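General statements about sequence and structure are easier to judge against a single worked case. For one protein, we set the task of working out the structure tokens from the amino acid sequence alone. This step matters because it turns folding into a mapping between discrete strings. The amino acid sequence and the backbone structure tokens for this protein are reproduced below.
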Amino acid sequence: MSEEEKAAVLIEALPYIQRFAGKIFVIKYGGSAMGERFTDVILDIIWLKQVGIHPVVVHGGGKEITAMLERLGHRAQFVEGLRVTDEAVMEVVEMVLSGAVNPRLVAAFNQHDGGAVGLSGVDGMLLEVAKKHHPAGDIGYVGEVVHVNTALIEGLLDRHLIPVIAPVGVDREGRRYNVNADEAAGAVAGALGAEKLFLITDVPGIVRRGPGGSEVVSKITAEEIRQLVESGEIYGGMIPKVKACLTALEAGAKHVHIINGEDPHALLLEVFTDRGIGTMVLPAGEGPE
């Protein structure tokens, strides 16, 4: 890349930096996407902070949880992308998320002077939950977020810190619950009125069948997502992701993006370039151009 091309990249980013300075971005970073581009994602998030954006990270850890359960002789069970969680599984979930994945992420941020602070949803009742009831039956200690302690998050942002949240919730009786990371991120984004929610995954976005085969949808509305779920075109592990999109938008987040964490610097490309990458989910009344 020539010096002129490097300058053009910076100039292209300028209006986006001006538009988003001071805004909150919630970023869900899934365990399935924590691969070769791990450092790229960490640096992208730090870059957001350095240009005046306030990033909040909610992480997953599904692959690590499943691997630990297998080591302990447990078989993982899922219902529509939600992990069936009995007491034994809940212990493993909390051990892996709060005791392994969260510290690893925080250490990676701070290795690059990111100023990150690790939190569990239990801390300060950050994620207050109620037991999730599913039509398929009892799925155990799986929680649905009913309240987010935004004051705790905002206090950290005011101190120019990056909150890194493990999706373990707690109810008023002190019972701890496994919270789907996508749904937790959606709840946090909505409660904060975030400018954007990013779901960083191992897929390129929402894919639907077209005349030439499967293709990634660049922009889609909340209503179109509901139709795709009802038709069965969106299914399995993608259901919690799109439900998180809808939850965030309905609660006040402005836009949601689904991007592939294995693409180099996908987060920066989605935010600071005209073309973007992945799928942007638009609120009701704001259709694709």
Q: What stands out?
A: The first helix runs from residue 3 to 20. The mean pLDDT is 90. The radius of gyration is 18 Å.
